[in-house]
Amino acid sequence: EVITVQELANRMAERGADVIKSLMRMGVMATINQTIDADTAELVVAEFGHRMRRVSESDVEVGLKGDQDIDEDLIARAPVVTVMGHVDHGKTSLLDALRSTDVASREAGGITQHIGAYQVQLGSGGKITFIDTPGHAAFTEMRARGANVTDVVVLVVAADDGIMPQTIEAIHHAKAAQVPIIVAINKCDLPDANPDRVRQELLQHELVVEEMGGDVLAVEVSAKTRQGLDKIEEAILLQAEILELRANPNRAAEGVVIEAKLERGRGSVATVLVQRGTLRVGDIFVAGAEWGRVRALVNDRGASTDTAGPAEPIEVLGLNGTPMAGDEFAVVETEARAREITEFRQRKKREAVAAAGSRGTLEQMFTRIQAGEAKELPIVIKGDVQGSIEAISGALERLTSANTEVKVRVLHSSVGAINESDVTLANASKAMIFGFNVRANPQAREMAKRDGIEIRYYSVIYDVIDDVRAALTGMLSPIL
Ligand code: GDP
């Protein structure tokens, strides 16, 4: 044990909370005053893009790479969009329709390849990247792995059906990730389409559209007749402008794995989304606990290219193993370095599995609260009737104001059994799940066990409130 978390943060000129977060992603739970070993420190340092040298058995030196991109190196990049919404509201149809608005592939007459994401180039010159797997499950799983790739969520709501349970889930998942939402009111070609009703219903979920004096962009579209496709694209670009999305293309590439598989004749293939820098054929890279040398880059039109820049989804060939969706991807200088990092990560991964992770428990919550990293207690509430759920949420939110330090945040609440979607959401946001007169389904129970998410069951409202109050003061007794 060579250095405290605080000291390491100081030497890197990073915030302590960010260092703790980075440690947590590696499965290491540490407080700001705890010491960590040189191996762990080195990995943290690398994650921040700095370099470390072991000056003695008991000390390390951090060399700043000086690679926080400076303002003038940053140029505008395409927004990355995920489409969400209730089943059958037209997510897939809309993704297909939007894909065919790409002018570049029309010129090239290219064959579309489904690689997990695609980019469209608009007639206006703008570009938008779409994640090809619709729905909030993929979105939130990626987030649970520490990858925030989505800049904008397009929420698809069928105009003949209105807001449905999965629409509400999607809203909560997007809000928990603090990603802005644009609403696509789809199927406006149908005779019983009622876009006004959709706008009205959105109000109940705190999405106030522009027509009603709010700031949420909502566009009437039809994936079938292609009405409004240009409008939705304009809305996305407008939102992107507000977000000022920029990246430095002139540096070693970093990004996230969107999809990865083993293919006959091609070996391990990963689709990555470059987030900054430019990826080149021949680059040595690390992806999660795997590494490789870029043998070929194939874009979403099936064409081989030599480079891929920010917000460009690209298939990478040349991996030595198959990483996981959501894994971080980064180019490194040497093969030796790549081996070192992946060996370390594989060891950490085994250790983390052995330690049977525990992310969303109250104890972990308190470690983070003490470290100043968590200012809120995020929870997911499921119950048997709407009335009791509302009573619980209301009471918990009142606890919030009584305690100015730590707040309760209800990420999602709805009627029904605790399902997989609840667990992924809790995992991504390090939240706990409360079941009021409902249980978890077997799949959700299994997932929660695997991910170390705490599920608490209650049948008396006062018990919930008492436990949370106790939790806020750090005095909760463990579950029996
Ligand atoms: P997903 O489950 O959200 O991905 O929905 P799909 O894209 O599979 O669409 C569900 C059904 O709605 C399919 O039968 C589509 O053909 C139909 N659909 C999708 N968009 C539209 C639309 O704009 N208008 C009409 N009339 N039908 C649509």
From TrEMBL:
<keyword id="KW-0963">Cytoplasm</keyword>
<keyword id="KW-0396">Initiation factor</keyword>
<comment type="function">
    <text>One of the essential components for the initiation of protein synthesis. Protects formylmethionyl-tRNA from spontaneous hydrolysis and promotes its binding to the 30S ribosomal subunits. Also involved in the hydrolysis of GTP during the formation of the 70S ribosomal complex.</text>
</comment>
<feature type="domain" description="Tr-type G">
    <location>
        <begin position="76"/>
        <end position="244"/>
    </location>
</feature>
<protein>
    <recommendedName>
        <fullName>Translation initiation factor IF-2</fullName>
    </recommendedName>
</protein>
<keyword id="KW-0547">Nucleotide-binding</keyword>
<dbReference type="GO" id="GO:0005525">
    <property type="term" value="F:GTP binding"/>
</dbReference>
<dbReference type="GO" id="GO:0005829">
    <property type="term" value="C:cytosol"/>
</dbReference>
<keyword id="KW-0648">Protein biosynthesis</keyword>
<feature type="binding site">
    <location>
        <begin position="186"/>
        <end position="189"/>
    </location>
    <ligand>
        <name>GTP</name>
    </ligand>
</feature>
<dbReference type="GO" id="GO:0003743">
    <property type="term" value="F:translation initiation factor activity"/>
</dbReference>
<feature type="binding site">
    <location>
        <begin position="85"/>
        <end position="92"/>
    </location>
    <ligand>
        <name>GTP</name>
    </ligand>
</feature>
<keyword id="KW-0342">GTP-binding</keyword>
<feature type="binding site">
    <location>
        <begin position="132"/>
        <end position="136"/>
    </location>
    <ligand>
        <name>GTP</name>
    </ligand>
</feature>
<dbReference type="GO" id="GO:0003924">
    <property type="term" value="F:GTPase activity"/>
</dbReference>
<comment type="similarity">
    <text>Belongs to the TRAFAC class translation factor GTPase superfamily. Classic translation factor GTPase family. IF-2 subfamily.</text>
</comment>
